[in-house]
Write a structure and sequence with these properties.
About 20% of the residues lie in helices and about 25% in strands. The chain has about 110 residues and is an alpha+beta fold. The chain has one domain: Alpha-Beta Plaits. The longest helix has 12 residues. The mean pLDDT is about 90. The structure holds adenosine-5'-diphosphate and magnesium ion. Adenosine-5'-diphosphate binds next to strand 2 and strand 3.
Length: about 110
């Protein structure tokens, strides 16, 4: 299994969720975060200046899928979240050691 951690622009969340469920993703975690990338937040604009100049609001997605699906998930997020402008986000892929569905006791790929 792999975990895909992606930061996206908040307004892209609904499109990305829809695209991911469309390819068979069945669960994800979504967190509102603040962060910065190469531009350190300086040249991005987000609804005025209510935020600390160095940090901009992003949405973080965490998605665990079978290893065979990871590439498709990455491509789908990359394609859907892309605006071509700075701050479009980043995608990281990590190995996942185990998973457990609490209700049934199912493990690993059966649990996701
Ligand atoms: N090296 C990194 N490690 C962890 N998170 C990162 C990293 N780079 C970017 N991020 C996260 O991704 C968000 C979007 O980054 P982005 O501005 O698109 O990257 P860049 O400016 O480097 O192209 C940041 O707000 C931050 O939350
Ligand atoms: Mg940036």
């Amino acid at each position: 299994m792999k975990m895909i951690i992606a930061t996206i622009k908040p307004f892209k969340l609904e499109d990305v969720r829809e695209a991911l469920t469309g390819i068979g993703v069945r669960g994800m975690m979504v967190t509102e975060i603040k962060g910065f990338g190469a531009q350190a937040g300086h040249t991005e604009i987000y609804r005025g200046a209510e935020y600390s100049v160095n940090f901009l609001p992003k949405v973080k997605l965490e998605i665990v899928v079978g290893a065979d699906m990871a590439e498709q998930v990455v491509e789908t997020i990359a394609k859907t979240a892309n605006t071509g402008k700075i701050g479009d986000g980043k995608i990281f892929v990590l190995d996942v050691e185990s998973a457990l569905r609490v209700r049934t006791g199912e493990t690993n790929e059966d649990a996701i």
